[in-house]
Amino acid sequence: MNGHTALPEWDLLKAIELGNRDAFAVLYDRHASLLFGIGCTLLRDVSDAEDLVHDVFLGLPRALKTFEGRGPFEGWLKRTATRTALMKLRQARTRRAALRRLALAAQRTVPPPAVEDRVDIEAALLRLRPGQRDVFILRIVQGFNTRETADLLGVRIGTVRIRLLRARRALRTMLME
Fold first, then answer.
1. pTM
2. How many domains is the chain partitioned into structurally?
3. Residues 149 and 138: beta-carbon distance below 8 Å
4. Rounded CA gap, 58 and 108, in Å?
5. CATH (domain of 130)
6. Structure confidence by residue, pLDDT tens digits, 6-21
7. What is the pLDDT of residue 152?
8. Of the candidates 102, 119, 136, which is a domain's last residue?
């Protein structure tokens, strides 16, 4: 990896297009933890998050052909990872299995108060309608703006706003119970 660690991303991307494995490794080192965090947040499972990182980087050389450089590479990579994660979530078996694992984990032990609040929030998130939950996680947890969230979910901006409003109301009601 001699000298590649200090290269700007644009130069790394060019080197990857030329088949440079060292440049690919540097790019992986820079962004794998970010993608893993997105995977953990959206997929709710460490092994699924690891698979997401693997899938995104495995398809990266081919996907780079769609990167036009109009915005930051990291933003494009986050959107790519989020789209990949959402595709995984759309598979009914994966969604049901993840919900069962979270429900079982929440029932196993009585957590201390600080963790208990988090479990309440996670349980409330799981009770939201899938569209509302996806919008809430993308906008509030992951920090995507309304336009990016709409693009990632393939819905209109107004739909994102309505789902977020309804998600906030529902969460407020659930957490007050």
1. 0.57
2. 2
3. yes
4. 36
5. 1.10.10.10
6. 677 788 888 888 878 8
7. 85
8. 102
